[in-house]
Design a protein that fits this description.
The structure holds two protein chains of two kinds. Chain A contains five helices and two strands. By secondary structure, chain A is mostly helical. In chain A, 19% of the residues are buried. Helix content of chain B is 64%, strand content 8%. Classes of the chains: A mainly alpha, B mainly alpha. Chain B: Keywords: Membrane, Transmembrane, Transmembrane helix.
């Protein structure tokens, strides 16, 4: 977490809950593994709505399940 | 499923950009060497060659001397000729060489700067590494080589005619100051591209970390 934001990505737990690998998600969502890795490891500074839509469709979840807000400090 | 982003064929592919960058680097280094040789020649010689223009009367005199067939006539307003001037001081020799030296130096600077830009294009990061600044150098080179160099040539012509005492009404030559407009327009166009690259660099920085 950096760059003046407190957004956390829950992709790790979502994948674990579904027994899915990052590569499988990349195939299903049509998003590159590199980009998903950046997102999973909280190195993303911005997310396209199209990427978020694809990830949610592939995981069967809502945007709020993928992203969370860390407490201040 | 989100459709993958469509791609277009690159205008200048990595291999082509690399080859052009190498060629430009060679041209740049070659031009710099030529400029140095020209300076050395200007210092070591005791004469200078300048470009001046034949007056209308001189042109008509040449026309009469050519004995051309009936009806054929030498045309042209301000016909340019190269005038060899012996025994000139160092300052005038350097001024006479300034036009060519400026031209080759501008070619060297412009080619090397453009080569750097093409190298950035080759590695897929066209906006990185100060490409905008390098394109501004290219624009400045166009101005120096396309505008200042011809002006230096004209100034050398004036000085040489003055040195020879050929500035009177009945002199066969005259010198004239010309300001080329095409290089000015080209420099503005290159500056526009430099500005586009500057904004591109800002956009590229903006999308770092975008997924």
């Amino acid at each position: 977490m950096s760059d003046g934001h407190r957004i956390l990505c829950r992709l790790d737990s979502l994948l674990a809950a579904r027994g899915m690998t990052l590569t499988e998600l990349a195939d299903r969502a049509g998003v590159s593994v590199v980009n998903l890795s950046v997102l999973k490891n909280d190195r993303a500074r911005a997310v396209r709505f199209s990427t978020l839509t694809a990830v949610c469709d592939a995981l069967g979840c809502r945007p709020g399940d993928v992203l969370d807000l860390a407490p201040p400090g | 499923m989100v459709p993958r982003m469509s791609t277009t064929k690159p205008v200048l592919g990595p291999r082509s950009a690399g080859a052009h960058a190498l060629l430009l680097a060679f041209v740049g280094v070659g031009a710099a060497i030529v400029a140095l040789v020209l300076v050395w020649l200007a210092v070591s010689r005791d004469a200078a060659d300048v470009t001046v223009f034949l007056t209308n009367q001189a042109r008509l005199d040449v026309d009469a001397g050519l004995d051309l067939p009936a009806g054929a006539v030498l045309l042209g307003d301000l016909v340019g000729v190269d005038l060899h001037v012996p025994d000139v001081p160092l300052g005038l020799r350097l001024l006479a060489a300034a036009s060519s030296v400026l031209l080759f130096l501008s070619i060297a600077a412009g080619a090397l700067a453009l080569a750097q830009v093409l190298r950035s294009v080759r590695v897929g990061r066209p906006f990185a590494g100060g490409s905008s600044t390098r394109l501004q150098v290219v624009a400045a080179s166009v101005l120096v080589g396309g505008v200042l160099a011809p002006m230096a040539r004209d100034a050398a012509g004036f000085a040489a005619l003055d040195h020879l005492g050929l500035t009177g009404e009945d002199a066969p030559f005259l010198a004239q100051l010309t300001i080329p407009l095409t290089p000015l327009l080209l420099a503005v166009a290159v500056l526009g591209i430099a500005e586009a690259f500057r904004r591109g660099a800002l956009l590229a920085d903006d999308v770092v970390g975008l997924v």
